[in-house]
Amino acid sequence: MVALIKSMCLVGMLVLVVSVVEQVNGAGECGRSSTPDDEATKLAPCAMAARDPNADVSSSCCTQVKRIGKNPSCLCAAILSSTAKAAGFKPAIAITIPKRCNISDFPVGYKSYTVP
């Protein structure tokens, strides 16, 4: 009986450890196959629009924003990524691009974590 209880405890511990490891190695804001930096490189057509609120937003930029914006937390993470910062993106301006692209299904008032 004691051996059975010890075995059950060991199995329970293994399940707990496996679930914690899966969460640590799990998907981030942009899923398992992509990172915010990867997605930020796809936003290259948006570089001018992400720096200047009066710049025209290209159709290729809108296409990428619409695709990435299907997951708003991924879009925000991409805008706040080190790749976007290195490209000169200003998060407070970049987050206005969905509206400037007339993307109506982007959540109204969606905020990217902490936009400076």
From TrEMBL:
- Which residues are in the Bifunctional inhibitor/plant lipid transfer protein/seed storage helical domain? 30-114
Question: What GO biological process terms does the UniProt entry carry, in alphabetical order?
Answer: systemic acquired resistance
Asked if the record carries the keyword Repeat, the reply is no
Cited SMART domains: AAI
Q: Which residues form the signal peptide?
A: 1-26
Q: Which UniProt keywords apply?
A: Signal
- InterPro entries from the entry? Bifun_inhib/LTP/seed_sf (IPR036312), Bifunc_inhib/LTP/seed_store (IPR016140), DIR1-like (IPR039265)
The answer on whether this UniProt entry bears the keyword Zinc reads no
Query: What name has this protein been given in UniProt?
Result: Bifunctional inhibitor/plant lipid transfer protein/seed storage helical domain-containing protein
